[in-house]
Amino acid sequence: MRKPLIAANWKMFKTPAEATAFLTTFLPLVSQQSHAEVVLCPAMTSLAASIAAAAGSNVHIGAQTMHWLDSGAYTGETSPTMLKAIGATHVLIGHSERRQYFNETDTTVNLKLKAALAHGLIPIVCVGEHLEEREADLTAKVLELQTAVALEGIDAATAAPIVFAYEPVWAIGTGRTATPQIAEQAHKLIRNQIASSLTPAIAASTRILYGGSVKPDNAATLCCLEDIDGALVGGASLDPTSFAQIVLNSAA
Ligand code: PGA
């Protein structure tokens, strides 16, 4: 009932020309698959080129962040209205690098999540604990709090599009991955919190992705377990062959 979603987070990589070249190689590799929804999240300056290159394909294009307001004096920011206007369909919210380097908090995550839903963008809300938190046995507390605050004041009737991504910060870009058992346990905690914040039915239908050093060779074991409904991929999504392999291996 939950269609797997495999998303690429390109971070601050790829010019428009590089994004177009990626899509030229990537699209034919995944054109026959339909088990997963595939989303690429390029940098803002490569969104338009990526949307043009992906037009008519089974690949969607999303942003890596956005502001929560429609417009205003916020130098450097991009609004949900602007993303919709160019044809973006998804948006990452609260990635740990945004939280760590750009002062995003659970409260701004909540504002952005509400804005994404109001504008018809599919939000991918990132949560995850730091290594010190895991070692201090605080993982459950951190995940429950991040999930609960993200969902504060959200009407269950509007919540169907929400996607979560569990990204343990210690696994991002480190080559260290959560074991399937660790990931399953975290995903269950997040799903239980969604059930308490919204409804059990919404929790059962919400996709929760795993992110953190997903590669072609571990995609089959990490992407799609009982409570894991896909992946958010950083480093290994920059190469079209490697990312296509992840998409195809996640069908296993
Ligand atoms: P990684 O990044 O796959 O390079 O670990 C994942 C992410 O930051 O979303």
Characterise the protein shown here:
The protein has an eight-stranded parallel beta barrel, surrounded by five helices. Helix 1 packs parallel to helix 11, helix 5 crosses helix 7 and helix 10 runs parallel beside helix 11. It has one domain: Aldolase class I (TIM Barrel), CATH 3.20.20. It is built from eleven helices and eight strands. The chain is globular. With 252 residues, it is of the alpha/beta class. Strand 3, helix 3 and strand 4 form a beta-alpha-beta unit. The longest helix is centred in the last third of the chain and has 18 residues. 43% of the residues lie in helices and 15% in strands. The chain starts with a strand and ends with a helix. Bound molecules: 2-phosphoglycolic acid (PGA). The site of 2-phosphoglycolic acid (PGA) has 13 residues, from strand 8.
